[in-house]
Amino acid sequence: MGFVFSKSVSDSLKAQQEFMLMNSRLQLERQLLMQNQMRERQIAMQIAWTREFLKYFGTFFGLAAVGLTAGAIKKKNPGVLLPIVPLSFIFAYQYDMGYGTLLQRMKGEAENILDTQSTLLELPKGPLTYEELEKIRRSQSKFFIEK
After folding, report:
1. pTM beyond cutoff 0.85
2. Which residues contact residue 120 at a Cβ distance below 8 angstroms, ignoring those fewer than 6 apart?
């Protein structure tokens, strides 16, 4: 009788452990999916913001280029066109970010850094540990009194 009861408890415990393992795996998968969805939405918003900014900056750049060209012709001084140089770099960067391949190039470079230069990613003094955090918390806490 005791063996049957013990076997039943053991089987029940094993089934419960399998259920908990499957449940925690499902929860982790959902968290990973949610984080990835949030990341994709943030990147989409950044690209959309860049494209919207490009519309306004493109208009400004076009008007500035026309105005500076007219001023250079009127004053017969080509030096008046100098502000177009930095403005054109900003315009080219924004266009590349919004409609070009800048994000793909950045992704490729990030993958290269992760693969070949991972030492650059290390934190100063190494990763944080629980003990270090507790030591800092205790030193800053006004309520915690330790004997």
Report:
1. no
2. 113
